[in-house]
Amino acid sequence: MARLDVTETFKGICFPGHLHTQESLRYATEFKFQDTDTLIVTYPKSGTTWMQEIVTLISCKGDPAKSQMQPNWTRAPWIEQYYCSDVLKAAQGPRLLSTHLPYKLLAPALQRSKAKVIYVARNPKDVIVSYYHFHKMANFLKDPGTFTEFLSTFQEGTVYYGSWFDHVKEWTSNARNIDNFLYITYEEMWEDLRSSLEKVSRFLQCPLMEDELSSAQKSCSFSTMKENSMVNYTLVPQEIMDHSKGKFMRKGQIGDWVNTFSTEQSRNFDISYASKMADSVLTFVWETKKSCIDSESLPVYNS
């Protein structure tokens, strides 16, 4: 299934046709969640791959064998992508799932289960830069044009998967409507990976011994993941993802946006952000290592 130039529009949101069909998107909105499922929810380029690796390693008690032998898209398939149902037919044990879908599309299905939901957010300036570079190498995504053009499209919410602002606000503001919900940020994981591993393991009720925690931390470090072909997408054919134009796992840093945004672009985005996020309690780390994230305002909800 190539469909590299196809765009699917579903419920007013655009998706890359290479991975999505009308049938696969309907399948996701009607998904039969099981109480033992763990669902990783992210807007694109917000730490999906990282959390997939973290949950895999926690469930394997720090043993890296599975993450070194099985591609992450089969370990934690996106429920809205066309291959998901086939992957899950062969799945055994508790399922690890992923999605980029907005809350409004999954709410009905989730409210019928006690599946665990992990929502990972990232500061939007870094999301924009990462997403822009991904568009330049992924042949199934639209040509992003100049960074100025892409920035404008992103702020309008007309990029693939829709508005970042709507996505993060809808999921986090509806946290109490989900029986088991964990909010964590990319910046938290970057600044203190060990504590983040402990936080996720507590949520999953899968405690790790000290040696298991150390093994997991080593295996899900950015440097290790960057060299792992099961994670870095080098297994994807060149005609689909042109690795000569960039790396899927590029820098993974906080604040790399300063190397792309102009002063004026940053100032204008700040104004737009302040307006669109005025009704949100979320705060993000933009440049510094010192965390200012009010994650306690979005606690873990366990039934």
Q: TL;DR of this structure?
A:
The protein is of the alpha/beta class and 303 residues long. The protein contains 14 helices and 6 strands. A hairpin with a 2-residue loop joins strand 1 and strand 2.
Give the strand content: 5-15%
- The structural domain count equals 1
User: What fraction, in percent, of the residue positions are helical?
Assistant: 40-55%
Q: Report the principal-axis shape.
A: globular
Q: What is the radius of gyration computed over CA atoms, rounded to a whole number of angstroms?
A: 18 Å
Weakly predicted, low-confidence segments: 290-303
What's the SSE pattern? EEHEHHHHEHEHHHEHHHHH
CATH superfamily: P-loop containing nucleotide triphosphate hydrolases
Distance between the termini: 41 Å
User: Which strand order do you get reading across the main beta sheet?
Assistant: 4-3-5-6
CATH class value: Alpha Beta
Question: Architecture, CATH level 2?
Answer: 3-Layer(aba) Sandwich
Number of strands: 6
Structure description:
By secondary structure, this protein is an alpha/beta fold. It has one domain: P-loop containing nucleotide triphosphate hydrolases (Rossmann fold, 3-Layer(aba) Sandwich), CATH 3.40.50. Helices cover 41% and strands 10% of the residues. The chain is built from 14 helices and six strands. It has a four-stranded parallel β-sheet with strand order 4-3-5-6, sandwiched between helices. Strands 1-2 form a two-stranded antiparallel sheet. Helix 2 runs antiparallel to helix 12 and helix 11 crosses helix 12. The longest helix has 14 residues. The radius of gyration is 18 Å and the shape is globular. Belongs to the sulfotransferase 1 family. One of its GO terms (cellular component) is cytoplasm. One of its GO terms (molecular function) is sulfotransferase activity. Its EC number is 2.8.2.-. This is Sulfotransferase.
